[in-house]
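Subject: for your reference before the review

Hello V.,

The reviewers asked for a structural picture of the protein, and I figured it would be easier to keep everything in one thread rather than splitting it across files. Below is the amino acid sequence we used in the manuscript, unchanged from the supplementary table.
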Amino acid sequence: MLYNGKCYLKSALDGTIIIINNEGVYAVKVAYFDCFSGISGDMCLGALVDAGISVKNLEKDLKRIPIAGYRLSSRKVERNHVAARKVDVVIENKRKDKGPKRWKEIESIIRKSSLPVEIKLKGQTIFERLFKAEAKVHGESFDTVHLHELGAVDTIIDVFGTIIGLATLGIERVHASPVNLGSGYVELEGGILPVPAPATAEILKKVPVFSGHIQSELTTPTGAAIIKGVASGFGDMPMMEIKKIGIGAGKNDFKKIPNVLRLFIGEQPASYEKHAEKVTVIEANIDDMNPQVYEYAMEKLFHAGALDVFLTQVIMKKGRPGVKITVLGYEGQREDLTRIMLEETSTTGIRFVEMKRSILQREVKMVDTEFGKVRVKFSRLGNGTLKMTPEYEDCRRIAKKLNIPLVDIMKKISTIS
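And here is what came back from the structure prediction:
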C-alpha cells in the first residue's frame, strides 16, 4: 500500500489498517462480490487468493485456530473460457470429516483461537446465523442441531479464511450483488432437496436473490452465511476506482455461464466520501430493566455488527427516569439488531429511521513510544486535518504495568508528531 511514496503492506491481523492514498488523498478500500453465478466458501477463498492473498500466509494465519488435519490446495482452472482460481480445503488422508459439528464445540474452537477479537466475533456471528438456520429448517434446538451436510473443518476454514483474507487486504467495507441461487434439485446424504437448500433460503431472508435457470445449486449455506455476514449492503456496484479483480472458481463448468465468483477491490477517494453513506438508527426507551443487563445487551449488539451502541439518560412520562438505547447499523443488519434488542432488553417495541453519516478517513498504526508499541488511530480529512487518538486498551495495559496515571500515558502518546 502506498502513502507519500512509501509502501506499507501489513496484515490487518496485527491491528494495522492502512488506508490507501492516491495523490496524497486518503481513500476507503472497498470490496464488491459479484454473485452472478452464486457463492460458496471455496469460491470466496479462490477469489481472495486470485486477488493477491498468499496461500502460504493464509495458512499461517489460519493456524491460530486450534484445528488440524487439513491443507489448502490452489490451482488455476477455466470455467466457460474464463480463467479462475480454484482453492479447496483438502482433508488429510482423504478421510471423511469427523470434526465437531455442534455449536458449543465450534464456539469453543473459536474462543480458544488466538485470532484478533474482531475476527473472532465476525466468525462467531456467521456461525450463529448458520446454526440458527439449520435448527429452524430441521426442527431442532440451537444447541442440539449439527451441520448436517457441511464438513466442520471445511466450513471453519472457508469462513475464517474469507474474513482473514478481507482483513489482510485492508478492506473497510464490503458490498455484494444480488445472489444467484440456481434451480432444480440437490442430492444430499439425507435425500433430494430443492434449490435453494432450506438452510440457504433461511439465511438469505431480506437479501435480493434470483434464479439464473441453471439446473444446479449455485449458492451453498456456507456461501450464503459468509456474504450475509460480511456485506453491508446488496445491489449495484458502488462508485469506486477498481484496483484488483479476483476470480474464484466453483466446482462446476457450465455451458451457459462461467461458474465463478468475481471480487472487485477498489478505492473510494475522499472526494467520493462527500456522498454520505446510509445507516439505520434503532432506538428504544427503557425504564424497568436491571442496569447490569445493558452491558450484556450492548456486547451482543456489537457482536452482531452494530457500528455503535450508546445509552442516554432520559425523563419519561410521569417524571420517571429512563434510558434510551441507540444502535447504529447498516440497513441489512436491521433485522438482527432489532431482534437482539427485543430479546435481550425489557422493551416491547423499537423505532428506527434511515439516516446518512459522513466519517473521517481513518488509519490505525503501530507507533513506537517511550512506553513501547502502541496502536494509534489517525483521522484525516481531504484537506489534511488530523486527529490522533491512542488505543485505550493499550494505554490501560501500560498504565497498570508501569503504575503511571492513565491520563498521563494518553496525554504523552497524543503528543506524538
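For the response letter, the relevant points are probably these. The chain is about 30% helix and 30% strand. The chain has three domains: 24-273, 277-357, 361-414.

Happy to draft the paragraph if you're swamped.

O.
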